[in-house]
Amino acid sequence: MSKIPLERKVLNENDRIAAELRARFAEHGILCLNFVSSPGAGKTLLLERTLEQFPKSERVAVLTGDVQTDNDARRLARAGFPVKQITTAGACHLDARMVERALGDWRLEEIDLLLIENVGNLVCPASYDLGEAAKIVVLSVAEGDDKPLKYPAMFFRAGLLILSKIDLLPYVPFSLAAARENALRIHPEIEILELSSTTGAGFEAWQTWLAVRRRAAAAGFQRATRPTQAQV
Amino acid sequence: MHELSIANSILDAVRAEAARRPGVRPLKVGVRVGELSGIQPDALSFSFEALVRGSDLEPLALEIEACPRRQRCPECGQEFQVHDFDITCPGCGEASTHCVSGDELDLIYMEIEEA
Asked: Which domains does chain B have, with CATH numbers?
């Protein structure tokens, strides 16, 4: 009997595909964001409101994952941008291969911003890299403000926390301060925004965040495609 | 509950490694699971056993090495294990410390015998 050292990631294959996707996104100057949350935190409404505010000329595309139905894709398609539903048929998360397949016939050179709405689940999607620039975790004030402590993996991996449904604050025992503190205990570098997709409160800060990240993705793209720079 | 998918990925890796070594039989696989990995070790063991039972890999065993969250203090350099989510440096009281381990989901080793 002998022991062979392996020392590699269990999700090697997923990570390999995710790295390929990330390279393709960089090559086309695409900012890809992966929205995660528990079911009902308001991912779809946040995306609907976000899409509505873009001019029609905006080069945005959306992938939305659900265990069953294409209800979300139909809701999101109303804004007029390309939307594709990924139905996982039971799987509790999206993985990199599902994203790769779903992108299939889309021309990436015609997309600047790719928004991926993951399956509503605060556990499993944390483990799967989809090639995104950042995971955005949405936590609604109708949930518990200790969720970052209960589901640390997701908050540890997310670059941005959006505290949603703040219009409900007068009716629920949720403390924004406690939620912030708990999230920062898990992930000291996480960025935090508060908003309501229903009233529009806080949306300006969210749009600014998005604009800054898009400029950074586009600048990286321009640097990479400028020939003098590429030779350096 | 994606431990079943994770267990399946582990078995895929074991099969791939075994295929590269004709004439050997895998007996055990070692996996490192960090506390921030989002993987529940008991659920992973349960899923693993369920998948191995009756398969070509039976009686392959799984050994899980649990890996706690550890932080490093940028001020005094101390490394420490995190308890109760408290990431404050126990040495100097610095509140903003950096994570150095705890999000692993790694294959560590495989035990084999000549078949």
From this structure: 3-68+102-114 (3.30.2320.50)
CB proximity under 8 Å: B 33-72 to A: 35-39
Confidence label for A229 from pLDDT (cuts 50, 70 and 90): very low
Domains of chain A plus CATH, in order, are 12-214 (3.40.50.300)
Interface residue ranges in chain A relative to chain B, Cβ cutoff 8 Å = 1-14, 91-93, 95, 123-124, 126-127, 149, 151-154, 156-157, 182, 185-186, 188
Q: How many CB pairs under 8 A join A and B?
A: 95
Residue A211 burial (CB < 10 Å; 0-12/13-18/19+)?
Answer: exposed
Task: Give tens-digit pLDDT for B7-44.
Answer: 999 999 999 999 998 889 999 999 999 999 989 999 99
ipTM: 0.84
